[in-house]
Every structure is written in structure tokens, then in C-alpha cells.
Amino acid sequence: MTQSYVIIGDGVAGSSAAETLRGEAPDADITVLTDEGESLYNRILIKEYAKGKLPAAPISIHDVSWYDDRDINLELNTLVVDIDVTEHTIETHHGDVYDWDKLLLATGGTPTQLPVENADANGVHHFWTFQDARDIKSNIESADSSVIVGAGLLGIDLAAITAAQDVEGKYLMRGDCWWRYALSEQGASIIHDALRERGVEPVFQSGVDHFEVDETGHVTTAVDPNGDQYDADFVGIAIGLNFNTEILQNTPIECDDGIIVDEYMQTSHEDVFAAGDITQFYDRILGERGQNGAWGSAKEQGSIAAKNMIEYNSEPFEWVSSYSITHFDFPFLSFGHPTLGDDTAEAKHSDTEWRRLAFKDGRIVGGVLIGDLSPQSKYKQLMRERRVVSGQRDILMQEEFELDDLEPIETVIE
Ligand SMILES: Cc1cc2nc3c(=O)[nH]c(=O)nc-3n(C[C@H](O)[C@H](O)[C@H](O)COP(=O)(O)OP(=O)(O)OC[C@H]3O[C@@H](n4cnc5c(N)ncnc54)[C@H](O)[C@@H]3O)c2cc1C
């Protein structure tokens, strides 16, 4: 009997699942539904478009014919509003109902709004979709001053966009350094210097109490909790993601700041799977539940979910996630779970070279490399092998080291 697969979300997780399903189940009925008005594009590259460095065309990954050629039914501008796991149906905002044998939830997240006065004013931007990037580009090109809020990997993209567009900016941060959960002040100071060189001034122990607007409703000023005022006719906010789980409200599917899945991407319902940023998955390397917010991980999860939707237990997800930023003269890479663990080791090798590893129970669970990315494959291998190495941090922190310099494997866990 022909199996029907419905995928909610045409980001990289949903799209890669559709591709794998078609490859492995040539006769299956496959439907992909997305509330966006365009099919899969490269979310990583939309910042380059907003900077004015890349035209729109190369950002698209699949045009509509890609789905037609593979006999995949793609529905754009279609919001799924309800799921019935007993009847095996979903309903869209048009009132259309689709039956499924297996369902994939690949709905990602939506940027968290700053809960302050005038956070919805004109000129205040959040950043997730290509349409957001178009709006940001058109606003920043006519801006004279900017404020960025959110000291993480997306906030720094917004800061880099203002810098690339030659708009002076203030980057308001709650603590004493950028991405304080993964970097020490020593590591972050490399990033702060690079921001200053590009005309973006970090402001520490700050944030936004409210925004002021002009008579047209356009933002003019950010006022921080200390009462300090910063001119801003462009504001970029990146303070986190709310995971798109509302459609699961009437289902028994287990959620906890994301959708809980096992290592086969199966939810608490045997016919419902999830993939991408939305998942709280069982991380075999970490030995506990983890969550990734990275392109490569979402793509792999989509593909693994598809295989297990066809035949459960066929392949587990086991992956060391990577996330790089390329705004500066030096490279930057974070991998694994750099904000987790119970111990860290760090070293600075030059004004633009710094590294830090996070350990849990003596094993590497993540890290950040600035300036010199050459040890990344060794660290990732040690992480995959679950080797207990925290006692050998002197070797791990050397500018150059070989895996053979380390003591032989002490412990491997399954
Ligand atoms: C500006 C920016 C820069 C980034 N840079 C990097 C980077 O350098 N490196 C890196 O690894 N990662 C980066 N990321 C993160 C990476 O893009 C994400 O981890 C990845 O795209 C997640 O893919 P996903 O398919 O899980 O979710 P998404 O891409 O969020 O896709 C989910 C889709 O589901 C749709 N949807 C949600 N709910 C419904 C519904 N009810 N009905 C229909 N459709 C629905 C959404 O509209 C969306 O299209 C960046 C992200 C952004 C925004």
C-alpha cells in the first residue's frame, strides 16, 4: 500500500527529509507545507544579502520545479493550524485537511520579541526569514544610527550588517562580554575589538528599557535600564527563539522548549517524527538531551528522520554540530555544546587566536575556536570517541598537538 508522508516546514530539515524520502521510497505520496511564500533558501546566507554583499538569486536552494521534478507536493503560504494524531490528519488555515501515515514536524522557531514599550515600532527588526533580510536591507541602507540587542550568534550577524552598511552602532549586552555563556572575557575581547574596528561599540551591563518613536511611529532612540539613551533609526533584536510548538497543543506529543525525540527522531507518538532546530533530541555523544541550532545538524536530522519514518530503528542521529561566523579577518567556529558541561579549559595564543573547550565528566562536549581552526577535527574526533581527556588539558591547549600525544583511550560509553 502507498504510504503518505506529510512534512510541516520547508526549511533545511523538512526539505532534506523530503529529498531522502523520495530517494528511499520512490512510490510514496509526499507533501511539504510551509507558511513562507518561497521554497527552501539558504538561511545562512541571508545576512550576506542584508549586508549588500550578495544578490538574491544564489540564496535560493530549490525552486518550485525541484519539487515537481520529484513528484513532491509543495504547498507555499500554507500555515498548519491543527494536528489530529488519532485521525492521522492535519488542517491548514485554508481549512484543507491532509491525511498522513507518517508526519514530520520541522517547524523551527520564531524570534523572541523584546517585551518592552515600542518593540513593534517601525525600524525595529527581528531576523529569521529572507523577507526579514529584505526589510533589514531596505531600512539599514537609509539609517544613520543603529542599536543591536542580543549578545549571541544571531545578534553578531545584525551587528555585522550595520558595520557592512557603514552605519555606526551600539551593541547593548546584558553582561560583560559577547556570548558570555560560551566565551570568557579574554576570548570575547577579540570579538569586541573586531566590532569596534568596524564602528560597532559594545555597551556592557546594558539592555533596553523602552524605545522612543517619532510622530510617524519610527524608532528614534533606545533607552537602557540605566536611563542612558542611544540614537537608533535601525534596531536589530536577536534574543532567542520561541519554538513553533503551538500546533501540538491538542496532541499528546511531549514538548519541553522544543519537541522531545529519541535518537531516531521519533516523538512520543510512533507515527510522528520531528527534525531540525525544533527538536530536543537524545544526544548519544552528550549522553543526555540536547538541542542544536545549526544548519548542518538540521539537514542531517531531516534525512535521519526520513529513514526512520520509512523503517524505525534504521539509523540513529549522531552528529557533532558546527557553527562558524565569517564577519571578521579571523575565523570563528563553535562546535558541539560549548555552553554545557561542568568544566572548561582555555588558552590565548595571540591577539586573534583563542580557544576554549567545555568538558562534561572529563569528556569534550563542545568548544569555541577563534583565529586558528586547525585543531577542530581532532577535538571533534575526541568528542565522538567520548574519550576522557580533561586531565590532559595542557596538551589539548597547546598551539599544535597530535592525538598520539594523548594517553590511550580510557573510557568509552555507549
Ligand atoms: C540570519 C541567520 C544566520 C544563520 N547562520 C548560521 C550559520 O552561519 N551556521 C549555521 O549552522 N546555522 C546558522 N543559522 C541557523 C540555521 O539557519 C538553522 O539552524 C536552520 O535553518 C534550521 O532549520 P530548520 O529546518 O530546523 O528550521 P527553519 O529553517 O526555521 O524552518 C522551519 C520552517 O517551518 C515553517 N513553519 C513553522 N511553523 C509552521 C506551520 N505551523 N505551518 C507551516 N509552516 C510552518 C517556518 O516558517 C519555516 O519556514 C542561521 C540562522 C539565521 C536566521
TrEMBL record:
InterPro entries per UniProt: FAD-bd_OxRdtase (IPR050260), FAD/NAD-bd_sf (IPR036188), FAD/NAD-binding_dom (IPR023753), FAD/NAD-linked_Rdtase_dimer_sf (IPR016156), Rubredoxin_C (IPR041575)
Domain FAD/NAD(P)-binding: 4-283
MF terms in GO: oxidoreductase activity
Swiss-Prot/TrEMBL keywords: FAD, Flavoprotein
NADH-rubredoxin oxidoreductase C-terminal domain residues: 330-386
UniProt keyword Transmembrane, yes or no: no
Protein name according to UniProt: Flavin-dependent pyridine nucleotide oxidoreductase
Organism of origin: Haloquadratum walsbyi (strain DSM 16790 / HBSQ001)
